[in-house]
Design brief:
The protein is an all-alpha fold and 168 residues long. The protein has five helices and no strands. 79% of the residues lie in helices and 0% in strands. The termini are far apart.
Length: 168
C-alpha cells in the first residue's frame, strides 16, 4: 500500500512538470483531486468497515487501485487534467478503502498498552515500504530513460551530410 500511495504521488508531478510543462500551482491543482477523493471517502470507508468483512473491503480497494493504475497505461504527452481526473479519483477512493481495513486488521486486536508501540511500528513499515517503492520506481525510470535515449540514434539515424566539393 505504501508503494501505491507514494509511488503515484511521485510520478504524477514528475509527468506534469517534465512532459506537460506545468508549474507548481498547476501540478498542485491537478493532484489535489486524489486527496479530495480520499477525504470525501474517509467517512464512507469507516461506515463500510463496520458493515463489510475487512478482507472483502481490502480486496475492493486493491482492485480499484489496480483499475486506476491500469487506466493510466495509455498515458500520452497530450493527457491533461480531464484525462487524469477519473484515474486519480478512483485511486483516492480505493486507497481509502485499503487504509481503513489495513489499520483495523493490523491494530484492531491489540490491547491499549501495546497500541502505542504497534502504531509506531506500523507507520514506520508503511513509510519504509513507500520509500523502498520510490527508490525502485526512480531506479527503473532512470534506467529505462537511459535505455531509450541510447536507442534513439539507431531508430532515427541522422541524415547523411554532403561535403562541399565532393561528388557523392
Amino acid at each position: 500500500m505504501g508503494i501505491g500511495l507514494y509511488g503515484l504521488i511521485y510520478l504524477y508531478p514528475l509527468y506534469l512538470a517534465s512532459i506537460r510543462g506545468y508549474d507548481s500551482l498547476m501540478i498542485g491543482e491537478t493532484v489535489f483531486v486524489s486527496g479530495l477523493a480520499m477525504f470525501a471517502s474517509a467517512s464512507i470507508a469507516g461506515i463500510l468497515s463496520s458493515k463489510l468483512d475487512l478482507r472483502v473491503m481490502l480486496l475492493i480497494g486493491f482492485l480499484g487501485f489496480a483499475t486506476s493504475t491500469w487506466m493510466l497505461t495509455g498515458l500520452t504527452a497530450e493527457w491533461d487534467f480531464q484525462e487524469l481526473l477519473v484515474p486519480q479519483v478512483l485511486r483516492g477512493l480505493s486507497l481509502m478503502l485499503c487504509m481503513v481495513p489495513i489499520n483495523n486488521l493490523a491494530l484492531g486486536t491489540l490491547s491499549p498498552e501495546k497500541m502505542k508501540g504497534a502504531s509506531g511500528l506500523y507507520n514506520l513499515m508503511r513509510n519504509l515500504g513507500g520509500a523502498v517503492g520510490l527508490a525502485v520506481i526512480n531506479t527503473i525510470l532512470s534506467d529505462r530513460s537511459a535505455l531509450h535515449y541510447a536507442r534513439l540514434p539507431r531508430r532515427f539515424p541522422r541524415p547523411m551530410r554532403r561535403r562541399c566539393g565532393s561528388s557523392t
